[in-house]
Amino acid sequence: MADGSSETKSSNQMWGGRFASGPDAIMEEINASIGFDKKLYAQDIRGSIAHATMLAHQGIISVEDKDKIVHGLDTILSEIESGVFEFSRRLEDIHMNVEARLAALIGPAAGRLHTARSRNDQVALDFRLWVKEELQRTERALTALIGAFLDRAEEHADTVMPGFTHLQTAQPVTFGHHCLAYVEMFGRDRSRVRHAIEHMDECPIGAAALAGTGFPIDRHMTAKALGFREPTRNSIDTVSDRDFALEFLSIASIAATHLSRLAEEIVIWSTPQFGFIRLSDAFSTGSSIMPQKKNPDAAELVRAKTGRINGSLIALLTVMKGLPLAYSKDMQEDKEQVFDAAESLELAIAAMTGMVRDMTVRADRMKAAAGSGYSTATDLADWLVREAGLPFRDAHHVTGRAVALAEQKGCDLADLSLADLQAINPAITDKVFDVLTVEASVASRTSFGGTAPAEVLKQIAWWRARN
Ligand code: ARG
Fold it and tell me: Distance between CA 10 and CA 24 in Å, rounded?
């Protein structure tokens, strides 16, 4: 196609009135955003249709011109979607590419579309629509990940594994309970997403360049047509605000941090030394030299994507700091950060959902590890408090001596004889052995949010009703 029927090499058709010559090649290169903002084509066209419809409704343009504009925009949408549209870097960005093509298609009526509008409110609208849709996609992706964890949690509500602090064996927990920890994390991410959608649900179009417009526009009408709750309330803020992008990147960074912690656990759990899980073939790779290897590449890449996503947040924060009101061209640097972070986050969530859904949980290995490292020492101390009336600090001391003895003998706590234990504290009876197994340990922790299988099942039911 012609990228602007009346465009000359010398100056720009959209704003070239006062320019005698066109831009230097380097100027064109640094200025153009079409290479990445073409991603906003659907939002741009939707916004223009809503704007033109409102202009006609308000009597600012004729219904005939509006019909031509809408028809032309529909044609452009299908040209772009079928891949025949030629984007031009000389036309800078998606807004001017679409408008120039509209002029080529429908003639002078195209020039009426930009009445009571500026690229400043146009880009704020397009980008906000895109981010809102991305947040909705993120919400759905997180729901799928939470669902995968709930399934695994239910299946393994009573599978015992070691719980860690400092990555040292702490107390036995259930794998279901561990899965629910991630459900909580991704659940918080999802509520942050929902809150951000609420927060950004205001329509920028009609703020014009920065000061609003003297044309009798109806911003409530465009807001409604574009699915926003209401129009934004300050035209200066509207064209200089990128909080919605920063909120997306902040949420993405926190979610990526959660994904990275999960990725790290998957890497550890899938080592032969731990052997808690086996990743499916679909989510692992082999080594070109070591035939025995099965590498958790997807988990490692999820862990690494966090760096990119956090980097995008810092990049945009740095772009925005110190910008005077209202619009500055610096803000054109917002999109690539958000697009890159969005792509990385979507991929990371999808890969994690697949890994969690497909991995084989090796309950035998988990249980064996849960019993080692004196993981039921706290249970012994608690028993001494409950059954022998010892103050907890004394019970802690007695238990410490029992652990030292077991360590010296190279056995578990449960393998010490009653005589051994009574030599440390005569109040101990053979009833103590009931609490030294890992199953008894987890079953006893019935406090709200605790690791007992019964409690885990209750929490699963709570989440199921909300997922
Ligand atoms: N491509 C620009 C951006 O992404 C569009 C807005 C340009 N506005 C302007 N006054 N030059 O920010």
Answer: 10
Which helix H or strand E contains 104, and what residues bound it?
A: helix 94-106
State the Cα–Cα distance between residues 298 and 305, nearest whole angstrom.
Answer: 10
- Interatomic CA distance for residues 115 and 304, integer angstroms: 46
Give the pLDDT score at 283.
Answer: 81
Which helix (H) or strand (E) segment holds residue 277: the answer is: strand 277-278
- In sequence order, the β-bridge partners of residue 174 are 160
CB-hemisphere CA count at 13 Å for 117?
A: 29
Could you give the angle at the alpha carbon of 176 between the alpha carbons of 172 and 181, nearest 5°? 90
Rounded-to-integer distance, Cα 18 and Cα 311, Å: 40
Cβ(134) to ligand 1 under 6 A? Answer: no
Q: How many CB atoms lie within 10 A of CB 396?
A: 16
In the reported structure, the alpha carbon of residue 119 is separated from the centroid of ligand 1 by a whole-number distance in angstroms of 6
- The 3-state DSSP class for residue 441 equals helix
Cα–ligand 1 centroid distance for 386 (angstroms): 70
Pocket probe for ligand 1: among 87, 329, 333, 339, the residue whose CB has the most ligand atoms within 8 Å is 329
Ranges under pLDDT 50 in the chain: 1-8
* Distance, CA of 278 to CA of 128 (rounded, Å): 42
Q: How far is the CA of 422 from the centre of ligand 1 (A)?
A: 80
pLDDT at 17 (0 to 100): 79
Strand partners, 198: none
User: Looking at residue 88, what is its pLDDT?
Assistant: 97
- The pLDDT score that the predictor gives to residue 208 is 98
Amino acid 113: pLDDT? 98
Q: What pLDDT, on the 0 to 100 scale, is given for residue 176?
A: 98
Which residues have C-beta within 8 Å of that of residue 203, sequence separation ≥ 6? 125, 128, 219, 222, 223, 226, 228, 230, 231, 232
Alpha helices in 226-362 (DSSP H): 235-240, 243-269, 297-320, 334-358
CB 132 within 8 Å of CB 202: no
Q: What is the pTM of this model?
A: 0.92
